[in-house]
From TrEMBL:
UniProt keyword annotations, A-Z: Cell membrane, G-protein coupled receptor, Glycoprotein, Membrane, Receptor, Signal, Transducer, Transmembrane, Transmembrane helix
Database matches in Gene3D superfamilies: 3.40.50.2300, GPCR, family 3, nine cysteines domain (2.10.50.30)
PROSITE patterns named among the record's database cross-references: G_PROTEIN_RECEP_F3_3, G_PROTEIN_RECEP_F3_4
Protein name per Swiss-Prot or TrEMBL: Vomeronasal type-2 receptor 26-like
Length: 681
């Protein structure tokens, strides 16, 4: 009628896990019970990552000198000096009887200046009551101990039964008289005992007046098991009697006598027993023919007069759902007075805080370790993690490396200072270009404007207007459409701009060559030729862009690794080769313009823009040659900013170099903007 010890051992492990005690001592009696406890607990502890600080066995008795000396060394060197605050003691009453004197002596002597700060975890086989009578030893060392006892409950009228016990009644058993003599230290008349009692037993002694260390008025777990066993047997016999009565009635006509009842014939009826006892608890056997009562967890509280009381603080309920069979109430527990912190710690190494991991110590058990900080980019969100874990690509570790924080999506926008500065410059240059266009349109009939090919000039100014608007596409959130428009718009618009500059330069050269007598170049001089030249250059660039779009177009791209804490949203160019083809083609036109303008710089100033075009192309080429290495070394929004800066710088260079001097003459030196002045020069 006693539950299996396996449930008790499982409960001990659950207790250790509840208090996070991972470094515990194992002490067992030198008997079969202690050996079984050791063999059962060790694999259970190992599976739950709990280490045994020591494995010791006590001698069977402590009365021989050699055993006393050995036990003292064992207690002193192993148990007291161990860092393990929790010690599991497996054994019987005789085992603890052998150990207790040495524990008390170590407690009094305060060995090595270290108080014995231990939590004793005692199995159900130990019974203080059974060892108290002959010794009455010091109980203070076991203050705060945690005991596993067979489950018991308050049985009705049991206390009344104890109060009515009287050893002077006739036909009383001898055990009661012996017990009375032992606990009350009195002598019955005509007793042959050699002990000198303090007085004679009167029968007026009350069991409830005894301290709980001598006698408990409540029913113990073992007594409760016997109580249930007697009732289970009674129910089994009753069911057997009913069954045999039915058989006898069936055989009455045949006048046959039933055979005598054998013990083994009770087994089926005993297995099927199920009843509620007087304490209101259901008594039945489980599938393994074990009583499903479980164990109580008690806390030992001692008092200065060496008395003690065991308080129920928990339960192992085998009938509870899985995961809820173990329960304990910490608020009811009393700990040993020597502990500086409660509940006490029982670990080999302090817990590694979040943000660090365990680092195994060579040559020691896995419960002994150092703490090492997590490597960069990894976290430990809980205590005592064996390894740090990495964050997902869209998260990053916080400063303490204890949790992963979502990354913010970052791209160049109008809302940040850099984006606002770029937008302001783009708008400023756009307005300046628009102003230049208005000035030229207002003074389109003046000699200076007419001499510089008005249609080509208007086309150039319009393309510059579009160039200054291009950054606004780059400042929008990268999406599939915006990524396609960025480079395509930039490539085509800039090609129109550079081809216009080249066409103006070539037109000037052709105009002067055509003025020579007998020149065949006259047919190449005219507005249509310049327009066709610009259109042809633009179509070639548009063809390159079309191939780019058709084969490997730009697309939105998330860069999750370049900047910690940010996801850079940008545009992947798709085909890098075609991107540089677009830039290379514009560079070719710019270099060609620079070369032609350089050789045409000595033509007459009145009709010649070559000097200004030379300077503007030199500036243009410098900007874009510098752009390539800077662009390749940049990432994210800085890459976009570099390209926008190159667009603004080169466009502003063209605007200032080519149209700055002309606006100066038109607006401030009108005396130079007359036909006579131009012809004179």
């Amino acid at each position: 009628m006693v539950p299996s010890d396996d449930h008790q051992y499982t409960g001990i492990v659950e207790l250790l896990l509840h208090f996070s005690w991972t470094w515990v001592g194992l002490l067992a009696g030198n008997n079969d019970s202690g050996e079984k406890c050791m063999q059962t607990l060790q694999p259970l502890l190992s599976r739950k990552h709990i280490c045994s600080a020591f494995l010791e066995r006590t001698p069977q008795t402590s009365y021989e000198y050699n055993n006393i000396h050995l036990l003292y060394l064992q207690v002193n060197q192993v148990i007291v000096k161990s860092k393990a605050s929790a010690v599991i003691f497996c054994g019987n009453s005789a085992s603890i009887l052998a150990l207790q004197p040495m524990l008390a002596q170590c407690e009094r002597e305060n060995v090595a200046g270290t108080p014995m700060r231990k939590v004793w975890i005692l199995t159900a086989q130990l019974d203080f009551i059974g060892t108290t009578y002959p010794t009455r030893w010091d109980m203070q060392v076991f203050q705060g101990s945690i005991s596993f006892t067979v489950h018991s409950n308050e049985v009705q009228r049991f206390r009344d039964f104890l109060q009515l016990l009287n050893p002077f009644e006739e036909n009383g058993d001898d055990f009661l008289k012996q017990f009375w003599t032992l606990v009350f230290r009195c002598l019955f008349p005509n007793s042959n005992t050699e002990e000198k009692p303090s007085g004679s037993c009167t029968g007026d002694e009350k069991l409830e007046d005894l301290p709980s260390s001598d006698f408990e008025m409540s029913m113990t777990g073992h007594s409760y098991s016997v109580y249930n066993a007697v009732y289970a047997m009674a129910h089994a016999l009753h069911n057997t009697f009913l069954h045999r009565s039915k058989q006898r009635a069936a055989m009455e006509g045949e006048m046959q006598e039933l055979p005598k009842l054998q013990a083994w014939q009770l087994h089926p009826f005993l297995r099927s027993v199920s009843f509620n006892n007087s304490a209101g608890e259901k008594v039945s056997f489980g599938e393994n023919r074990e009583l499903e009562t479980g164990f109580d967890i008690t806390n030992l509280v001692t008092f200065p007069n060496n008395s003690y009381v065991k308080i129920k603080v928990g339960r192992i309920d085998l009938e509870a759902p899985p995961g809820k069979q173990f329960s304990i109430h910490e608020d009811k527990m009393v700990w040993h007075k020597s502990f500086l912190q409660v509940p006490p710690h029982s670990v080999c190494s302090p817990s590694c805080p979040p943000g660090s991991r365990k680092k195994k110590k060579e040559g020691e058990k896995f419960c002994c370790y150092d703490c090492a900080p997590c490597p960069e980019g990894r976290i430990a969100s809980q205590k005592d993690m064996n390894d740090c874990i990495g964050c997902s690509e869209d998260h990053y570790p916080n400063k303490d490396q204890t949790q992963c924080i979502p990354k913010t999506i970052s791209f160049l926008t109008f809302g940040e200072p850099l984006g606002m500065s770029i937008a302001f410059l783009s708008l400023l240059f756009f307005l300046l270009t628009l102003l230049v266009l208005v000035i030229f349109a207002k003074h389109q009939d003046t000699p200076l404007v007419r001499a510089n090919n008005r249609d080509l000039t208007y086309t150039l100014l319009t393309s510059l207007l579009l160039c200054f608007l291009c950054p606004f596409i780059f400042l929008s959130q990268p999406e599939r459409v915006s990524c396609l428009l960025r480079q395509m718009t930039f490539g085509v618009v800039f090609t129109v701009t550079v081809s216009c500059v080249l066409a103006k330069t070539v037109t000037v050269v052709l105009a002067f060559v055509a003025t020579k007598p007998g020149s065949r170049m006259r047919k190449w001089v005219g507005k249509r030729v310049a327009s066709a030249f610009v259109l042809t250059c633009t179509i070639i660039q548009a063809g390159i862009c079309t191939v780019w779009l058709g084969t490997s177009p730009p697309f939105p791209h998330f860069d999750k690794h370049y900047v910690t804490g940010e996801i850079i949203l940008g545009c992947n160019e798709g085909s890098v080769a075609l991107f540089y083809c677009v830039l290379g083609y514009m560079g070719f036109l710019a270099i060609l313009s620079f070369v032609v303008a350089f050789f045409a710089r000595k033509l007459p100033d009145s009709f010649n823009e070559a000097k200004f075009i030379t300077f503007s192309m030199l500036l243009f080429c410098s900007v874009w040659i510098s752009f390539v290495p800077v662009y390749l070394s940049s990432k994210g929004k800085h890459m976009v900013a570099v390209e926008i800066f190159s667009i603004l710088a080169s466009s502003a260079g063209l605007l200032g170099s080519i149209f700055g001097p002309k606006c100066y003459i038109i607006m401030l030196r009108r005396d130079l903007n007359i036909r006579e002045q131009l012809m004179r020069n």
